[in-house]
Structure formats: structure tokens, C-alpha cells
Amino acid sequence: MTKRKERIISLSFVFLMVAGCAARTPSYQPRPEAGNKELARMGYTIQAGAFARAENASRLTESLSRQGLDATYFVAGKVLYKVRFGNFSTRAVARERAESLRAAGIIGDYYIVSPGDYAAAKKGYDAFGLREELVKTARSFVGVPYLWGGIDGEQGFDCSGLTMTVYQLNGLALPRTSLEQAETGSEVARERLTKGDLVFFQTGGEKISHVGIYIGDDLFIHAPGRGKKIRADSLAARYFRECFVGARSYISRNRKNEVGENNNEP
User: Catalytic residue at 222?
Assistant: First the structure.
């Protein structure tokens, strides 16, 4: 191999590293003053379906999304996928919407999830316990094929849907997109990350394009890309270390979570 060819190959490798991760000095930084320390609580939601395949749960999720509903699917036990959707102020409003969807043949049997059913509303739950529940929920997705369409970035893969789902399943209304998620909560320094915090990455361009949930020991769980399964990766890995642009916390480190703080009607 000539020196000229070696030089071309070397330059090509450098170009791919830079193109793949924008990244050593990211152009986007979440604003420290942005957002609130805590998220709003979830109201009443509707749960429907019990599918053996994630693809079927995904199809129902997409169908409900076309109805203008914020829908998500999740792992229930080891072999089933279920769907939750909506965020209603009262049980009566949630039931009315569920009945209309059942009459239209979009859903079958359903269950109304009350605000008090979530971990965020459990009496006596402190911030540590809630963070542990967030990690437990995130771990339940590992190995699951991620099938939603894209909202974030050019990959066509909705990584922020995973983080939103993990928080919503525990009763906290996390915003929908990774950019919105990065603009709420409180800034957390890399060395002070706590379980349940979200970590953000800039993998190209000038906007945040990827997000995951920190689970401790320098690991985070995320949906890595189209056609791949949800998995845990290390923040210390070179790619993620160079793409990392910040982290946010949404839970006070000393707050007690008491039933009744959510003012939704019974």
C-alpha cells in the first residue's frame, strides 16, 4: 500500500468518527436554568390489549396516536405487551373516551389506571424508592425490539419514547421529545448522576438527537437505533463519552411522594 493510500484511509477514518459523533465540543448545551425540578403527575390513563408480540402492541399504539392520543406500549410480565394511553383529569372522562374507542372497534376490553396506582403516588415512597422503580421499569425493556416511528433526528428512531414511557409508567408526565426532555428538569453534572436521571447526546447537527436513562455504575439504557433492541451501554465508551452533552434530573433528592398530592378527582 502506498503512503498516499494510507493517508487517504487514515483521513477517511477520522472523517467517519467526526461525522458519527458531532461531539468532542458539542454545539448544543442544555440551559442550566431551563425547566422545573419536578414533573407533573399523571392523571387517569387507559390500559388496553395483551399481546404476545411487540409488533401487535406497536400497531395499536400507532392506531391510537392517529386518534390524537399520547399512547405507549410496555412489557407486562415476561411474555405480554400492553398499551396505555391518554392523561385524563377524571375517571369519568377517561371512561367516556375508552367507551367511544371500544364502540369504534379500536380497542377491546380496557382498564382505567388511577393516579394513586403509580409509584410516584405511593404513600411513603421517597425519592430513592421512586428512582429504583424507574430503573426497574427501564430494565424490563432490555431486549425488546423498538418499533415506533421517529420523531427525534434523522435516524427515524424514537429514543425519547422509551424514556417518556419509563417515567409515565411510574406516574410522571415526562415530555414527548428528547429536546423537550432536555429543556425541563434540573441540570446534573456528569459526576453526580443518580439512578433515573436522563442523559443526552448530540450525534450530529446542532440539536440533541439521543437520550437514555441512567441506571447506575456508569450505565444507561436506551433505544440505540432502527432495527436494534433496547440495551444498556456505558457512558465511558468512547462514542458516548464524546457525544454526551448533559444530563437532567426530574426528582428532588429528598422529596416524599404522598398519595393525594395529585389533585385529580377520584
Answer: yes
